[in-house]
Amino acid sequence: MSRNSALPPVLPSDHPVDTSKRTLLKGMLAAGVMASGLPALAQSNWPTKPIRLVIPFPPGGGTDILARLVANQVAQSTKWTFVPDNKPGAGGTLGIAEIVRAAPTGYDLVMGQKDNLVVAPWLYKSVSYVPARDLIAISHVAYTPIVIVTSASSRFKTLADVVSAAKAQPESIKYGSPGNGTTIHLAAEIFSHAAGIKLLHVPYKGSNAAMMDAMAGNVDLMVASVPSALAQVKAGKLRALAVTSASRSTSLPNVPTVAESGYKDVDVSTWYGIFAPAKTPASVVDRIATEVNKVLASPEVIHAIHEQGAEAKLMTPKAFAELVDSDYKKWKPIVEQSGAKVD
User: Fold this and answer.
1) What is the DSSP secondary-structure string of 96-158?
2) Are 136 and 275 in contact (CB under 8 A)?
3) What is the pLDDT of residue 337?
4) Between the chain's N and C termini, which has fewer beta carbons within 10 Å?
5) What's the Cα-to-Cα distance from 22 to each of 4, 5, 11, 14, 289, rounded to whole Å?
6) Pfam families, per this entry (predicted)?
7) How does strand 269-277 pair with strand 174-177?
8) Residue 271 has pLDDT above 90, yes or no
9) What band does 158 get if pLDDT is binned at 50, 70 and 90?
């Protein structure tokens, strides 16, 4: 449309329109201009109220730690108000589903991760959302390896010890995870398949409960994100046996990878990021992404995330959306080959 075609029609002075109609026409044009400007005005003033950030796991786990860290930093930088809202259950899918159903205003966000966005849809029959269709990827926050740990008093000193015991007594060794259908659950299944062993999975509703049982010896192993387990590993209450990523964790440099321990083709890590419901205005998405990336570029925040066992990584919304969609397609055959299923 040309510049002139967007202008209201100009009536010549001798046009046979009476005064009342001229007044009505001017009122309609003015109303139209005002109405067309309302959404832009509302978005430019965004936010005008607190922003709810859904965390799909209980307090204290890796997702919760990173979500609150980033929200607090953005709040300090912008003076926005965030309200963390823990919504655990079904491997983190309940919290994601709640945001899929939320109004696309930017006032309802979720800290999602690889497990509940790109793995769970291939595991759970009840999951019907598709990330690229139902959510907008706003900001990649961090990525982290997954670590296999055991109690500090455990008989297992290395991953080889676990494999030997599991081969001697299949399904006698129990491992805890943050829940069915998580990347962490799948990482353990992929490792078991590579090592030719069978472990007994004990799913929990988040990392904290699993960690308590692992430290108490109620489960033999725990598989967790590095942020979830790092503090207890550093405190000497848990022993880290291996990480499932291709390279060692910078937070646990002395812990070997599963591949280094002798079990090839195991390369599983997870990422975390902020999402909004589909159709959230682009101006709001860009504004949140800009503010989150601003704090993620801060040396203090990079250090804080590293201290939690993760690595900060900035991405544009477009690049993050491409990563999510690529992983969503990539994990279908991985899930099928693992044989893992969740009713």
Assistant:
1) HHHHHHS-SSSSEEEEEEHIIIIIHHHHBTT----HHHHEEEEEEEEEEEEEEEEETT-S--S
2) yes
3) 73
4) N
5) 21, 20, 9, 12, 46
6) TctC
7) unpaired
8) yes
9) very high
CATH topology of domain 51-144+270-338: D-Maltodextrin-Binding Protein; domain 2 (3.40.190)
d(CA 225, CA 63): 9
State the Cα angle at 195 between 154 and 241, rounded to 5°.
Answer: 30
Counting every residue written for the chain, the total comes to 343
Contacts of 9 (CB under 8 A, 6+ apart): none
- Kindly list the domain boundaries of the chain, sorted by start residue: 51-144+270-338, 145-243
pLDDT at 7 over 70: no
Strand 135-151 to strand 269-277: parallel, antiparallel, or no bridges (unpaired)? antiparallel
pLDDT score for 9: 35
The reported pTM is: 0.72
Provide the token pair at 243: 């990480």
- H or E element that contains 175: strand 174-177
Show Cβ contacts of residue 291 under 8 Å, excluding neighbours closer than 6 positions. Answer: 74, 77, 78, 80
Question: Which tokens sit at 337?
Answer: 């080959």
Question: What own/partner pairs with CB < 8 Å and gap ≥ 24 does 128-134 have?
Answer: 129/96, 129/97, 129/100, 130/328, 131/275, 131/324, 131/325, 131/328, 132/321, 132/324, 132/325, 132/328, 133/278, 134/100, 134/277, 134/278
State how far the Cα of 74 lies from the Cα of 51, in Å rounded to an integer.
Answer: 11
Which is higher by pLDDT, 337 or 189? 189
51-144+270-338 and 145-243 share one fold: yes
Instruction: State the pairing for strand pair 135-151/108-113.
Output: unpaired
Q: What SS3 state is found at 51?
A: strand
What sign results for the dihedral spanned by CA atoms 182, 266, 196, 331? positive
Both tokens of residue 295?
A: 């704090």
